[in-house]
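ESCALATION

Customer reports they have been waiting on this structure for their group meeting. Please prioritize. Original submission:
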Amino acid sequence: MAEALQLARKGLYTTRLNPRVGCVVVKNSEVIGRGYHLSPGSPHAEVLALSTVKDSDGATIYVNLEPCSHHGKTPPCTETLVSAKVSRVVAAMTDPNPLVHGKGLEYLRSHGIKTAVNILKNEAIELNKGFVMRMTNGRPYLTVKTAISLDGKTALKSGESKWISSNESRMDVQKQRARSCAIMTGIDTIIADDPSLTVRLSNEELGIVDNIQQPKRIILDTQLRISPSAKVLNQAEDVIIYTCVENRKSAELKMQNVQIVIAKKTANHVDLDAVMKDLADRGINEVLVEAGSTLVGSLFENKLVDEMIVYMAPHIMGDASLGIAKLDSIQSMQDRIEFDISQTRKVGKDIKLQLKPQYSN
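Update from on-call: job pushed to the front of the queue and completed.
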């Protein structure tokens, strides 16, 4: 199963809207076939692995996600497994997709194939955390990325922030962008920094054959203040702007192939829950948030942040500089947001922290 998970990771930057799945075929205690899902529309891992095997009669299949049992862009993997006469299927986890959930394993058992499930389940969930979140909670998995000084500052009072973190940290962020379906920011960041929010690593640097498909860029712009000449619009067909107004600028942006979504307004900003639902409806699994303290604070207050990646640089910036999140709701120590530290490591001269918020009820 560990090898199946390792194979699944080969699709980390290419599956995007689909789950990352790897498969290992074992017969007589020897691995006789391997495969992984590369991209939407391409063969599923089980089908690809079995296509490399001459005789799968009596084999055991190890796969990190329950085989699908419904017709999508490809036929059900369960039918392929039955036709291949395998004797046993071991899955790391059941598929959270309601179209499949448990039905794939049930179909296999009804055709005389033994099954086992929940082997390295936590590792399997972590690999496909965005897919799991979208299927179970109806929204994408949100990761907030930020770079801070030792005194917790993200920018000087003037807004200047280039560069807090090291070059190695910035390259690490590029990999995080590459695995994400979308990058989200607020209009204040667009106006202050004029970022492109694209992946700047080559396919060779990412270890993939085809060129990287750029993630969608999601901009929350309540009053539609964005300039039509903003760098983020250089690849306008990949941009979705959520706003609460429609005016002459809307038509101009649509002419540039920007998608404009009119959303309802809540607490003086775009309704974040509505944005999350719309992104899920578009098949977006993982969203990387690169934004200022106002948007980050709003996401925390709405309990929408699932993970934080913090690059802490070894310098201080002073008490007048800006912090990570604007959280006016925190009035006492009891109101603070606590985190579990899931991973720490050194990246360049910085410390990278991966944190998961523990929201109180």
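Sent to customer with the following note: Residues 167-179 form the longest helix (13 residues).
Escalation resolved.
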